[in-house]
Amino acid sequence: MSTVILLAVTGLALGALYFLIAAGISLAFGLMHVLNFAHGAFLTIGAYAGYLVASGGGDVGTGRFVLMLAAGTLAGALAAVVTELLLIRPLYGNTHAQLLVTVGLSLALVALIEELAGSDARGYHSPGWANATTEIAGSAIRGSRFLAIGVAVLVLAALVVFLRRTRYGLIIRAGVENRSMVTALGIDVRRAFTLVFALGGAAAGLGGVIAGSYFGQVEPRVGTGLFIYALIVIVIGGLGSLTGTAVAAVLVGLLQQFLNYYAAGVGDLSVLALLALVLLARPAGLFRSTAS
Amino acid sequence: MSSPLLEVTDLHVRIGGSHILQGVGFTVAKGGVTALLGRNGVGKTTTIKAVMGLVRSTGTITLDGAAIGGARTFAIVRRGVGYVPEDREVFAGLTVGENLRLARLDGADRWDLVFDLFPELKKRLGQQAGTLSGGQQQMVSLARVLLNDHRLLLVDEPTKGLAPKVVGEVADALARAAEIATLVLVEQDLKVVRRLAGDAVVLDHGQVVHTGDAAALLADEELTRRLLGVGMSEGAA
Lengths: 292, 237
Ligand SMILES: Nc1ncnc2c1ncn2[C@@H]1O[C@H](COP(=O)(O)OP(=O)(O)O)[C@@H](O)[C@H]1O
Ligand SMILES: [Mg+2]
Known about the structure:
Distance between the termini of chain B: 36 Å
Radius of gyration of chain A: 18 Å
Strand content of chain A: under 5%
Structural class of chain A: mainly alpha
Mean pLDDT of chain B: 94
Strand order of the largest sheet of chain A: 1-4
Radius of gyration of chain B: 17 Å
Shape of chain B: globular
CATH class of chain B: Alpha Beta
Low-confidence stretches of chain B: none
Number of strands of chain B: 10
Mean pLDDT of chain A: 92
Distance between the termini of chain A: 35 Å
Order of helices and strands of chain A: HHHHEHEEHHHHEHHH
Bound molecules: adenosine-5'-diphosphate, magnesium ion
Number of helices of chain B: 10
Number of strands of chain A: 4
Number of domains of chain A: 1
Largest interface: A-B, 19 and 22 residues
Number of helices of chain A: 12
Number of domains of chain B: 1
Strand content of chain B: 25-35%
Largest sheet of chain A: 2 strands, antiparallel
Helix content of chain B: 25-40%
Strand order of the largest sheet of chain B: 6-7-8-3-9-10
Structural class of chain B: alpha/beta
Low-confidence stretches of chain A: none
Oligomer: heterodimer
């Protein structure tokens, strides 16, 4: 029983990390058909931004950690906006070129971070409570797991409120369904897209600090490694569907944890099997592509 | 004679390997309804989309004397051009109210007019637009442009596939719309054309083959049959 709880919470936390990356990729794809391969690198940038703010070593206080979260969020948003304005926008309408340029950017960012910070993993600073464990039904669970889950739930809730209650949210939901008709109503969809990119980058950057505290370390490939799973998550969830992304993230995280434990090592493979299964049965993903 | 509201000159559209519009040119005077006619596949929708900047074109397009060719679609709308697309294109996943709020641009407020024309919509603001009937969806599509203070409305086959009773309602709404804006109307139902249109522009194979008074065209059974493939007497009800 205690193992099941441990695996479930860890799986959920992993799913939370996937969601924090996947949400932005999914919305950007849903709205503009831009599949941003550099999105994982935004998470890494966020993680290192948090690391810089924490510098001093050892445990950090909660106040400092909040600053780290803010720095990661800001850095992710900034990286995304700069990417959108300088690389994505000039290639507007050419989705293949956009894809290629983001692949290149992703490689370049990883190399840049390795150059600046070294390729070795560095210990990540978290507040004491994130490393402390709590007993739940006999299993000891670290605070960072609950933190990841809590933050992902908050981000999901915030995105849902944004999509449901704001004018930009309305534009995005409509744009995911039929972008050219939105422009034909006199609305500059590209501006909404910059905002989507910024929000997605912010979530990924925030995810970077969360990932740092989850893994207890940071290294230049953390985001790009998680990106692969995030990509699988959004394909399973249905590109462009936020709810689908959340459900698929949880599904993939849990599946991976449980199978890695009970069937030693097939967890990662099983994720691919799930992907193949979904693609065969429901090529458009589990959820219809609506930004809800 | 005052300058035309819309002037299209030597408009060409090529998509893939096909040369769809081959030098289309016509003018639309301020006020009233100009019918854009022709058989299926002659380029009516493509012409409208080119004016909206939704397909790439060459040639010149001016709105009230100012060039709008090459401008981005949203900017063309902001200059006062409203678009009611051929297949309505309501946002199925949004509610009726959300469709309308999305379409309402800054400063525009014609809710009274819209609800007066389409009382049905007022009762269904919370309903998902995808669950509406075809006629109701057309009302949403028309309401989206009527909410705003557009000078020119491009309306593409608004009665297509609608029941006769609903065709009448849509025609009523178009008549009201024509009182506050200039309309370019693509329409297969010749009775609707006869009721609303002053001028007619007829396309064939991506070129303008006839321009003139709409009533005179429809009165000439022989000419109508040659240009449109159907006569007034057998046009859809
Ligand atoms: N996106 C497209 N790609 C290729 N051919 C197209 C496209 N859109 C329209 N066409 C072709 O252009 C011609 C004119 O189409 P259209 O403007 O829709 O005609 P209409 O509205 O008069 O029925 C048709 O032969 C149609 O098949
Ligand atoms: Mg057509």
